[in-house]
Amino acid sequence: MVKNGHLTLPRGAVAIALLCGAGVGFALSAPAKAAKVGVAAAVNPDAFSSLSQVPNKQLNIGKSIFYNERIETSAQGLVQVLLVDGSTFTVGPNSNLVIDKFVYDPNKKTGEMVATFSKGSMRFIGGKLSKNAGGVKVNTPDGALAIRGGMFQGNTQRRIYSFLYGHSMTMQGRNGQTQTVYQPGYTLDMSSGRGNVRPTTAEDTNVFMQALSSPNSNTAGTTGGDSGSQNPNSTAQQTGQQADNISNAASQAVGDATFAEIQTEIVKQLVRLEELRNDPVTLPKVIETPVINQPQTPTVVKTAATFDGFASGFVQTGENGSGKPEFLNNGTVVVMLDPKANTVTANVSADHNRTTEGPQIDAIAWLKENVQELRNVPDRYFPDITVGSETKTATAFNLGFLGSGNGAYTNNNIFQALGNPGTTQVSQFTSKTGTIDVGRFRVLWWKFGPYHYSVPISQRNDEYANVPHEGHLASLPGTLLCKDCSYLKFGTWASDVSFGQNAEDPTVEKMGGWWVASKDVVKTVGELPAQGNAFYAGNAVGTFAHRIEGKSWDQGLATGGVTLDWDFAERSGDLQVIDFGNDLGRKSFGGTVSSPVDVVGFSGDITNGGKGSMRGTFVGARPDLAPRAVMGDFNARGGNWRANGVYGARNVPNLPR
Prior knowledge:
Layout: E1 2-3, E2 6-7, H1 16-21, E3 36-43, E4 47-50, E5 57-58, E6 64-66, E7 70-73, E8 79-83, E9 88-91, E10 96-105, E11 110-119, E12 121-125, E13 136-140, E14 143-148, E15 151-155, E16 160-165, E17 168-173, E18 178-181, E19 186-189, E20 196-199, H2 202-211, H3 236-276, E21 286-287, E22 300-301, E23 305-315, E24 326-327, E25 329-338, E26 343-357, H4 363-370, E27 385-404, E28 416-419, E29 425-438, E30 441-443, E31 446-448, E32 451-464, E33 469-476, E34 488-499, E35 507-518, E36 533-547, E37 553-567, E38 572-582, E39 585-594, E40 602-606, E41 611-619, E42 629-637, E43 641-651
Helix pairs in contact: 2-3
């Protein structure tokens, strides 16, 4: 659903709904001087806590967590702590965590938190405090970690700390060395004693997934809260205020969890992709038609289908993607599911345009060779000459992906594919041009100029077939994008493409983004109503990048809302993307989109809130009714930000106009 313009998702293993709506009481259970900082939101029975001079006590859901309280887990333990600012710590087996300091002003949303994570595995999702520089510090055996506006995971045994999302993660090591990770998907590896920033591997992710998920976690049904309180003098007013604080924090955490939930889904898909290489997953028997009256036989229903749609994305620049992200344009996706061959084949096509500095031009030599009246003019008589040159490169990527077996093709909602060089082509057109400007000048009694010339330097077409590329295309549940939109498919894609004339030193372009598609795309204008209006509402998912003045670009997963108000008679409408972004920033933008005659799809320029372009089409034709949904993509930009992504929105009938 959309809450305050943000896509919000079910919390799953975290019992936030239980905390907010089930009347959980928060009685004080610690010495009078201890200050409450949060609550145990999800608990495995093998998790304990202790305060100074108070022995270990088993944790239960609703158990208040206090300043300076130690949280410990056994080999099977798992606990999730929700703090009053909306932050969460997930503490894995054989782990130890202490909240050393917690100061929070809910009105100003400022304060400071210091925690000590001395052993084990943990995941941190930042709340209000993490949005402020210096707001959150986690002491580890390897040094002090500062996280701003995001998420990270840590494992003390392997000495790895993975940055999942946000502005930055900084480690000040025991040796005084400081290192900062800005790019999600990278890990700070301290195993050598010196920090090494490297891409997060599937092995890293598996370590955290195995440690931080447990089928025995209790998120509902454990009662007692803070029974056996050590402080019988607590008042109802204190308890009520604490409940309000936790409720408010939990409500905000649900919104913040948007990124965490989608990130988790992506991570799971990528891990499975890595496993596919050598160890395909064995699933129950696959059939094309459901078996009736045989419940004892587990089945997986697969139906042959082709999905067409849109693909958005960035080409990365700079070291580790720290440069200005460059848009991909006119992106399309085709996904084909074949249950007989048990395969997933997909194709992502997109264009990329880049302008760089061109070669140097000897202006005087060129003028003498190409301008008859200047051929005999001595060089010393030429005035200052303004010379410019540029190289424009237009590249068309046609990327193929292939997945085979049950591990890749689970069912018609869950599928994934790896880069397939056999069906990947790259076409590139390179044009080098220059300009020469000369003002008026005199040689003895002869007058010359002014001159302005466009100088064609060179043009070149290159075609590359069977291009090697490493990447993936993976699906996510369509209902995350649009309520009741099971007929939409969407997901993520990425590719490192290698091509060029020099096989020893090829050009490598790193790119990736999002896709949305459907097998029910409206094909002809005759399937649309000729009159009337329709309103569509849904969500957008993509990437938001932001640059602080004088610094590199940061980017991360982004979400927002989307609406389309369409007039079928005028064949135009108002498309708005609402509050799209993440902790790096949020932007609302949009404009008018329209359809040419005899064309179903629509497009238009972004004219409010930024610049850029938007595209879309209708899905699910219905006789005498507006189509069920719309889907599409967008590229948007401002002075110090870039955003792109895909969207899905369903028809909202009977809306007052």
